[in-house]
Amino acid sequence: MRAILPALLLSVTLALPGHAQEDTANASAQLTPALRSADLVFNGITRSKDGRLFSPFQRQEKGRGLELGEWKSGKPAAYPDEAWNAWKPGDDAARAFVGVNAIRMGPDGDLWVLDKGAAGFGEAPLPGGPKLVQIDLATNAVRRVYPLEAATTPKSFIDDFRFNGRKVYLTDAGQPGLIVLDLDDGGTRRVLDGHRSMIAQRPLTGEDKVLLDPKGKPITVHADQLEVSPDGKTFYYQACTGPLYRIETRWLDDAAATDAERAGHIILHAATVSTGGTAIDAAGNIYASDADGLRILKIAPDGGTSTLVQDPRLVWVDAMWIDEEGGLWIPAAQVNRTKGFNGGKAALRFPTTIFRMEIGARPVRN
């Protein structure tokens, strides 16, 4: 099949088979609380090979609180230093974290940090704000900053990123499309701008409720989650409300290809639902959170979907991470209960928790 499947299939829902309920309950018992915070909201977790843990944090007030922290003795400390976390309105957006939205360990062992460059959800990026920051873990110092401003618009919300050799793919959840970054020359270009597969077809939901901005308007998040297959040949992506599509990476890497050509090679991979975050293992299985069903889905390379674990504690699981020991780190971020996504009223239930679960899978480090 060489084209997108009919829209009819996009409304497919994922049910939990009766025979799988016992296995799911057993999996729930394996959820181990690993990190907790009594007052902070995080939206991800990443772990170095030597066991260092980092999270991006969601400030609840502009210019106040952490953007990026390293967990030390169970508590986050500003990383790489206080200065990078001290941005406030009026400061230079190019020299500090304005709005960290995603982090991950790169294949080089450095910590990479995506700053959307906007102080609030739905706000325009600030001059110099959108950037990908590379941090040397040995020296705890910024090694290089890759500006992304040339590839953004006032509507852009650079959301997440993945590596594939010397290329980095980044989703734009505000101006629907992808950004391809070349790590060698720092050049950027946009692909599949405005394509239907990049655009959310319905408002965002969590715990079976439509999420609302502080003005009471339903929230829409376009191109968001993404993964690259272990062999680097397939790119998976979706709007925050699904479904999950795939395309061969060669069509993204080929600067001479047109978006019309690329569109002919997009395939519907799985009928995912409202999703907070994903991860992929070395066998090509994708783990995707179900923000309404409070569960983690396991999507096989052929698109077949099952439930890994379902638990009422898994409220808006965001960006997950698979460690070298076969553990899946699961941040129950509760983003849907924050003021920005709950009509201006916070409904968070502290502590916020990051769980770990043994899944016996090997990680991918493209």
- The figure for the number of domains is 1
Number of helices: 3
Largest sheet: 4 strands, antiparallel
Helix vs. strand class: mainly beta
Mean pLDDT, rounded to whole units? 93
Cα-to-Cα separation, first versus last residue: 27 Å
Order of helices and strands: HEEEEEEEEEEEEEEEEEEHHEEEEEEEE
- The largest sheet has its strands arranged as 1-26-25-24
**What CATH architecture label applies?**
6 Propeller
Strand content: 25-35%
What is the CATH first-level class name? Mainly Beta
CATH superfamily: TolB, C-terminal domain
Beta strand count: 26
Walk me through what this model shows.
This protein is mainly beta. The protein has one domain: TolB, C-terminal domain (Neuraminidase), CATH 2.120.10. The protein contains three helices and 26 strands. Strands 1-26-25-24 form a four-stranded antiparallel β-sheet, with no helix packed on it. Strands 2-3-4-5 form a four-stranded antiparallel β-sheet, with no helix packed on it. 48% of the residues are buried. Mean pLDDT is 93; it is low at 1-16.
Summary tags:
single chain, 366 residues, mainly beta, Neuraminidase, four-stranded antiparallel sheet, disordered N terminus, signal, 6-blade_b-propeller_TolB-like
Give a brief rundown of this model:
The protein has 366 residues and is mainly beta. It has helices at residues 21-29, 249-253, 259-263, and strands spanning 32-37, 46-47, 53-56, 68-72, 75-78, 100-105, 111-115, 131-136, 141-147, 158-164, 167-172, 177-182, 188-191, 205-206, 209-210, 223-228, 234-239, 244-248, 267-270, 278-280, 286-290, 295-299, 305-310, 321-322, 327-332, 352-358.
